[in-house]
Fold this sequence. Notes:
The protein has a single domain (about 1-295), classed as DD-peptidase/beta-lactamase superfamily (Beta-lactamase), CATH 3.40.710.10. The relative contact order is 0.19. Strands 3-2-10-9-8 form a 5-stranded antiparallel beta sheet. The chain has a two-stranded antiparallel sheet with strand order 1-11. The chain is built from 14 helices and 11 strands. The radius of gyration is 18 Å and the shape is globular. It is α+β, with helices and mostly antiparallel strands. The two termini are about 20 Å apart. The chain has helices spanning about 1-10, 65-70, 80, 95-100, 110-125, 130-140, 150-160, 160-170, 180-190, 195-200, 205, 220-235, 240-245, 285-295; strands at about 20, 35-40, 45-50, 55-60, 195, 210, 215-220, 250-255, 260-265, 270-275, 275.
Amino acid sequence: xxxxxxxxxxxxxxxxxxxxxxxxxxxxxxxxxxxxxxxxxxxxxxxxxxxxxxxxxxxxxxxxxxxxxxxxxxxxxxxxxxxxxxxxxxxxxxxxxxxxxxxxxxxxxxxxxxxxxxxxxxxxxxxxxxxxxxxxxxxxxxxxxxxxxxxxxxxxxxxxxxxxxxxxxxxxxxxxxxxxxxxxxxxxxxxxxxxxxxxxxxxxxxxxxxxxxxxxxxxxxxxxxxxxxxxxxxxxxxxxxxxxxxxxxxxxxxxxxxxxxxxxxxxxxxxxxxxxxxxxxxxxxxxxxxxxxxxxxxxxxx
Length: 302
Ligand code: GLN
């Protein structure tokens, strides 16, 4: 394992200048495009790290997996009347499909879907910010995980498209809370900063039938772990989900901070960080790294 991730790292170390660092949330543009880290965490508790693995970055849409996992045990099948389970085939912040489909987002991993999840969470957990941070800290076994106030405030100030998504859903009756309150919580979630090693550890419960191996806690049921992994496989990369599944063969989730986390059920989780994004908003080098990882390891879910 050590040899595989080191050789992939060496191979891609100088592969920069192929994509573009996100700048629509202005503080994200300040991050160096050269950053590169890989962390693996196995269900047995082994860890392997290479590159800038101790440095924290903005997890952005990777947080959508944490919010769905937090909500899953609190709701029944009625959740799926408010958000779908199908790939969107559209950009993560698209409004078009939402109008056609009467305010029901295609899945929980596009922005509209995650806004519905946050709306539902706030109905159940009024102090969601604190609870979510504690949740992520528990999953990763690290207290040193925080929101980035600068990133959250900047997204809140500039996120007109996300506000439009929320208002559109509200006009269809698929949104209970106040748009500003829900959107503020959403921006905080997206602004969480973590290192690849913290992220790999925080996702290991999805490789371990829903159980956090650090403390034996059943975070989500075995069935929900299966479902969340299935959603990541089909919807984790927006309109590039099919290509990711083809190249990598694993459930995973990306964020515009350049992070990607993927899971091999029963075995391991892997987090990669490289901020240059392709036109779908997914990390270019992150995807190549994961494609080589499953090829060289000879293990994916297929
Ligand atoms: N906070 C970002 C947004 O809503 C998250 C998008 C992403 O990471 N793909 O636009």
